[in-house]
């Protein structure tokens, strides 16, 4: 039996395999490289949802394939929800350490440490667009702790935990992360469609 194909608008092979394993026997999950798309799709939207939609629209318009994409970032209450959609290049460059240090500098002396990570997934399927959101709430700590994870993980402590994302194993983080929450919603929706 031929499985329907679904494109994940990413070049991250590990992300593609991870999702492919969750949708085994239902969809053949492909990434941008698999469909011959080597364009760095611009993320010029004003929100995570708009950026995710830009990626799915590009694939649907240019390759005529069902597709999903995600956009995520960190929003800090005291910084008016910055870095937000600019999380990956907050310091002006894609450098995790520079971005993290800029956040810590801006948070010096700030007592309101509330923050959340947010992911929005856009799915284009059968000429319709669907959005799935995942949020995990927590606080920004004073200094980085932990070796695992990436981005702002060493300074983000989720509510109800005494460890940062960077102190958790990948499996543990994937149980509670914003991306995991949004992906679970997407996968539940896709399983209903088959």
From TrEMBL:
Keywords: Hydrolase, Magnesium, Metal-binding, Nucleotide metabolism, Nucleotide-binding. The active site is at 71 (proton acceptor). Substrate binds at residues 10-15, 72, 150-153, 173, 178-179. GO terms for molecular function: dITP diphosphatase activity; ITP diphosphatase activity; metal ion binding; nucleotide binding; ribonucleoside triphosphate phosphatase activity; XTP diphosphatase activity. Its EC number is 3.6.1.66. The keyword Metal-binding applies. Binds 1 Mg(2+) ion per subunit. It catalyses: dITP + H2O = dIMP + diphosphate + H(+); ITP + H2O = IMP + diphosphate + H(+); XTP + H2O = XMP + diphosphate + H(+). Gene3D superfamilies: 3.90.950.10. One of its GO terms (biological process) is nucleotide metabolic process. Coiled coil: none annotated. GO terms for cellular component: cytosol. SUPFAM superfamilies: ITPase-like (SSF52972). The keyword Metal-binding applies. Homodimer. Pyrophosphatase that catalyzes the hydrolysis of nucleoside triphosphates to their monophosphate derivatives, with a high preference for the non-canonical purine nucleotides XTP (xanthosine triphosphate), dITP (deoxyinosine triphosphate) and ITP. Seems to function as a house-cleaning enzyme that removes non-canonical purine nucleotides from the nucleotide pool, thus preventing their incorporation into DNA/RNA and avoiding chromosomal lesions. Belongs to the HAM1 NTPase family. This is dITP/XTP pyrophosphatase. It comes from Pedobacter ginsengisoli.
């Amino acid at each position: 039996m031929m499985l329907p194909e679904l494109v994940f608008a990413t070049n991250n092979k590990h992300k593609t395999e991870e999702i492919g394993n969750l949708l085994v026997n239902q969809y053949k999950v492909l990434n941008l490289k698999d469909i011959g798309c080597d364009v760095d799709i611009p993320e010029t939207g004003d929100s995570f949802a708009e950026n995710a939609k830009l990626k799915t629209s590009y694939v649907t318009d240019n390759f005529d394939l069902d597709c999903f994409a995600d956009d995520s970032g960190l929003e800090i209450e005291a910084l008016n929800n910055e870095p937000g959609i600019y999380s990956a290049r907050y310091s002006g460059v894609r450098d995790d350490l520079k971005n993290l240090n800029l956040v810590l500098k801006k948070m010096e002396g700030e007592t309101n440490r509330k923050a959340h990570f947010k992911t929005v997934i856009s799915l284009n399927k059968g000429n319709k667009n669907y959005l799935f959101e995942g949020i995990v709430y927590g606080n920004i700590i004073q200094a980085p702790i932990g070796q695992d994870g990436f981005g702002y993980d060493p300074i983000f402590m989720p509510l109800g935990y005494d460890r940062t994302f960077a102190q958790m194993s990948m499996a543990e983080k994937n149980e509670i992360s914003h991306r995991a929450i949004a992906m679970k919603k997407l996968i539940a929706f896709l399983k209903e469609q088959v």
